[in-house]
Design brief:
Two copies of one chain form a homodimer. Chain A is built from four helices and six strands. With 107 residues, the first copy, chain A, is an alpha+beta fold.
């Protein structure tokens, strides 16, 4: 299992809408997350920053992420979510949410 | 079980030292974290922001946090860590790390 922490900004005016749609995520999107071996997935907000935490239990992260990105319902979901977000300028090439570095862990 | 997400800033010049000491956290501090019913505790870094995620499995969070704060070794540890950190101006009264709001979760 590998833990992933990522960060992105949310447009202030879009925060309530973002929270609302995430309180009722589309079932197909939720199902695809599970099928792509992501568990214990949380998103937190403070001061315009969104932080996501999840655990990856599959064997090939890149392959599972490609599978998710190829799913048409997930694409539609992202088309709704992405305009609400503002990615960090410092994100790596190919990233939307910027991956963070794990600096501590205790089970 | 309740999940907690929190955020604080780290002074740029102190990041390497912070990572170093967290790679070898004092055993007494680690033990106290466990005794205070905190599990699956991670800290991530990006662009001067530290994000922490943990799960609380006890019955009285405030009581367990008070227990941790009363532990002399934990106090010494905090004396080392806190000068490296810069709390958010928007944190609530009594907070050091600012608690975030959970806006999404999927098991």
């Amino acid at each position: 299992m590998k833990r992933y922490g990522s960060v992105i900004k949310i447009k202030t005016k879009k925060l309530e809408e973002y929270k609302k749609i995430h309180a009722n995520i589309w079932p197909e999107v939720a199902k695809m997350i599970t099928e792509c071996n992501i568990i214990n997935y949380s998103i937190f907000h403070k001061d315009g920053y969104l932080f996501s935490y999840f655990e990856y239990i599959g064997k090939n992260y890149e392959s599972d992420m490609a599978k998710m990105a190829a799913d048409s319902t997930t694409q539609e979901w992202w088309d709704v979510c992405m305009p609400m977000q503002e990615p960090l300028d410092t994100r790596k090439k190919g990233e939307w949410w910027a991956e963070m570095e794990e600096v501590f862990h205790q089970d």
